[in-house]
Structures are given as C-alpha cells and as structure tokens.
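Lecture 7 notes: from sequence to structure.
We start with the chain below.
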Amino acid sequence: MWPRFGPSCPSWLTGSRSGLSVWTTALIDEEQFRSRNEALLQKKKDLQEKREAAEATAANREAVEVGLAEVKSLLADFDRVWEQMAIEEQREMMMSLIEELKVGKDGEN
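Predicted structure tokens for the same chain:
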C-alpha cells in the first residue's frame, strides 16, 4: 500500500507510483533496510554503553582526585588529627595501615 502525501510534499516524491517504486527499490530493499537498521541500532546501543562506562570512569577519577586532595591535606596536619582521635579510632587507623607486623628475638625481623 502506498502512503498518501499531503500538499506540502516535494513534487519528486508525489510523482507516479512506478517512478517512486523504481527509485526506492534501486536503493535498498526492505530486508536490507531491516538488516542494516538492526546493525546500526546495535552499534548505537554499544556506543551508548561505552559512553556511559567512560562517564562513570571519569566520575570515579574525579572522586579519587578529590579524595587524594583531602588525604594530602589531612596528612599535612596528621599530628593534630591524631591527637583529636579517640583511642579506638587510633587503634583502627593503625590496623588499617599495618598489614603485618613480625617481632623477633633481639630485634630480628
């Protein structure tokens, strides 16, 4: 079934049906269109996923940079921060900083 065109359509499009049919079938048939369209839609989806991943990575980097700046600031004034910490907080801090501690006889190890 052929679509009906309104008065604002270009004259080349409202020409004879056979002329339009020849013009459209010479370019691409419906099966080719569907196949190419499906491939393009998949490519669009993949690119959107990559963009979202890149945006998330960028956001994470910004958060790390902000976190790094905060850590540098706190370390620059570590003595004051340490004094303000409760004993339990100091213990937790030391446990998070020290992975393994070995003590040997007469200072060995």
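Points to note: Residues 17-102 form one domain. The first helix runs from residue 17 to 27.
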